[in-house]
Amino acid sequence: MAPIKIGYWDIRGLAEPIRMLLKHLNIEFEEKRYGFGNESEASFPNLDEWLAEKFTLGLDFPNLPYLIDGDFKMTESVAILKRLARANGMIATTEPALSYSEMIEAMIIDIRNRLINVVYAENLGTPEEFEQKLVALREPLETSLGQLEAFFQKHGSQWVAGNQLTYVDFMAYEYLDWYRVFAKSTPIFEKLPKVSDYMKRFEELPSLKEYIASDEHRSVGCLSPFARIGHRWVKE
C-alpha cells in the first residue's frame, strides 16, 4: 500500500500536529512541502509553487494542508487530524472526556487564532505599534492559560481527555509552543506548573521525544514569511 501523502508549506504551521500524530503512530507518510520562492528575488515571498498545483490534485476544496490516502483526498487541518485519530484510537469516545477534549480543542484554536490575526494583519503599523499589539495578546492568553491550569488541577488528568492521549493534545502542544517561543523574553509559563508539566510530558513521549528535539522540528519557522514574526527562528 502506498504511504499517506501530506502537502503543506515548508513551515510548522497547521500541519505540525498532523506530522507529530503520524510520527507518534509510526505511520509512514510522504510529504510535499511548498516553498515561498527565492529570497533573493523581489517577488519573495510568493505562492507560485502551490498555485501551480492547487487545482490539479483532484481536491474537492483545494487548500493546505491536504491528505491523500490512496483514492481518498481531503483538506482542512482539524478534519485531517480527526480522520487519523478515529482510525487509530486517538479520539475520546466516552463522556465527559469527549466533551472536555472538544471544549479545549475550541479554546486552543482560539488561542492560536489570536496570534495569527495579529501577525498576519494587513495593517501591522510601525514596529512599535506591532509590539504593542503583541503585548496586548498577553492578558487574554494568561487568562486562558490560567483556566487550563485550573482544569488540570481540578481534574488531575494527564491529558485534555483525562488519561487518554488524543489528537487534541497534539494541537495544544504545538500552538502553546508557539507562544512559549514568541514570549521567551517575558516567560508566561513560569507560574503555570500544571501546564508546564503537560508540555514536558508531551515532549517526553518516547514516540516523539527525538523528533521534537531534532532540527527537523525545532529549526523550522512556525509561520510563513508573510507574517511579521515566526519565520526562520531557531528554538533553543
TrEMBL record:
Its EC number is 2.5.1.18. PROSITE patterns: GST_CTER (PS50405), GST_NTER (PS50404). One of its GO terms (biological process) is glutathione metabolic process. It catalyses: RX + glutathione = an S-substituted glutathione + a halide anion + H(+). Residues 2-92 form the GST N-terminal domain. Pfam families: GST_C_3, GST_N. Keywords: Transferase. Residues 94-223 form the GST C-terminal domain. GO terms for molecular function: glutathione transferase activity. It is an enzyme of class 2 (transferase). Belongs to the GST superfamily. Mu family. Conjugation of reduced glutathione to a wide number of exogenous and endogenous hydrophobic electrophiles. PANTHER family: GLUTATHIONE S-TRANSFERASE, GLUTATHIONE TRANSFERASE. This is glutathione transferase. It comes from Blomia tropicalis.
